[in-house]
């Protein structure tokens, strides 16, 4: 049975297509009127524009291609299962909350403030985002070629892999568990505090007081540029392919680097014998 098609419609009013099922919607505009597709199932959207609030809540099996969420389409996709969005520009804030099964491919978040909260099963490829508090308390994420400008990102995230990405983000990865980052650049103060099982591989990091209060930090072939007071109260396995400007009071493990500009080991705070430190030069 083929899906019903809707083409070039200008849809207004609250719940314009409420509880829609098996629809293909082309080049249509959802304007003033909240919740136009609330409680919908098996919907495919092509070249559509959302101009008003809460367009996709409590939905299942949604595909959106070449679509645009304008500024007033805030809180756009909440409580929705199996969502695939590709080639989209999203201007609205607070998009994607408590979604389960979310795929984003080539998506640009113009204002990503408070976006992607409490979601599970997230895959993102070639996504660009600007805004604070991105991806709060999410689980099971895979990111590739992700670019972020925004502070306090990924707070409370569990089970995430990031590859080939660039993050300009103060306080990134706080309170996280089981996060691995490959081949990426990270710049921001206080990186990774209170995390558990944080692994960085082939990464370049720039951070004031970065990587502190971490239970099991692993760094493999990473560069630390302008990074000071690192590793305080962290258990560390760090093989650093550069100089470290300063290290302060690691709790235990080993640190290998080209050199360390300043090493601070306060016996009244930590046991220096628990950390092995090797400088190649």
Structure in words:
By secondary structure, this protein is mainly beta. It has a domain at 174-281. Helices cover 0% and strands 51% of the residues. It is built from no helices and 26 strands. It has an eight-stranded parallel β-barrel. Strands 7-10 form a two-stranded parallel ribbon. It has a two-stranded parallel sheet with strand order 23-25. The radius of gyration is 22 Å and the shape is elongated. The model has no long low-confidence stretch (mean pLDDT 97).
Number of helices: 0
Helicity range: under 10%
Low-pLDDT segments: none
Strand fraction band? over 45%
Largest sheet, in brief, is:
8 strands, parallel, barrel
Strand order of the largest sheet: 14-15-17-19-21-20-18-16
Q: What is the mean pLDDT?
A: 97
Write the layout of secondary structure elements.
Blueprint: E1 4-7, E2 10-11, E3 21-26, E4 29-30, E5 41-46, E6 49-50, E7 56-57, E8 60-65, E9 68-69, E10 77-78, E11 81-90, E12 100-109, E13 120-130, E14 139-149, E15 158-163, E16 166-168, E17 177-182, E18 185-187, E19 196-201, E20 204-206, E21 215-224, E22 235-240, E23 243-248, E24 252-257, E25 259-264, E26 275-279
Parallel strand pairs: 1-3, 2-4, 3-5, 4-6, 5-8, 6-9, 7-10, 8-11, 9-11, 11-12, 12-13, 13-14, 14-15, 14-16, 15-17, 16-18, 17-19, 18-20, 19-21, 20-21, 21-22, 22-24, 23-25, 24-26
Question: Can you describe this structure in just a few lines?
Answer:
Helices cover 0% and strands 51% of the residues. With 281 residues, it is mainly beta. It has a domain at 174-281.
């Amino acid at each position: 049975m083929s899906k019903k098609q809707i083409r070039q419609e200008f849809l207004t009013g609250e719940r314009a297509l409420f509880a829609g099922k098996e629809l293909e919607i082309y080049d249509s505009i959802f304007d003033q009127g909240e919740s136009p597709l609330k409680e919908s199932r098996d919907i495919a959207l092509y070249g559509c524009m959302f101009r008003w609030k809460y367009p996709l809540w409590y939905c299942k099996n949604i595909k959106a291609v070449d679509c645009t969420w304008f500024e007033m389409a805030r809180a756009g996709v909440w409580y929705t299962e199996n969502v695939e969005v590709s080639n989209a520009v999203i201007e609205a804030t607070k998009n994607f909350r408590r979604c389960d099964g979310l795929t984003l491919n080539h998506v640009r978040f113009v204002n990503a403030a408070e976006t992607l909260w409490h979601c599970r099963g997230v895959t993102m490829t070639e996504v660009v985002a600007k805004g604070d508090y991105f991806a709060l308390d999410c689980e099971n994420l895979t990111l590739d070629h992700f670019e972020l400008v925004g502070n306090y990102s990924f707070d409370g995230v569990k089970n995430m892999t990031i590859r080939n990405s660039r993050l300009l983000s103060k306080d990134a990865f706080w309170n996280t568990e089981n996060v691995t980052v490959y081949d990426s650049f990270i710049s921001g103060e206080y990186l990774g505090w209170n995390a558990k099982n944080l692994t960085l591989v082939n990464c370049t990091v720039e951070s004031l007081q970065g990587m502190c209060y971490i239970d099991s930090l692993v760094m493999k072939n990473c560069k630390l540029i302008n990074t000071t007071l690192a590793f305080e109260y962290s258990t560390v396995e760090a093989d650093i392919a550069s100089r470290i400007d300063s290290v302060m009071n690691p709790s235990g493990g080993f640190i290998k680097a080209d050199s360390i500009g300043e090493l601070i080991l306060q016996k009244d705070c930590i046991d220096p014998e628990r950390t092995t430190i090797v400088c190649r030069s």
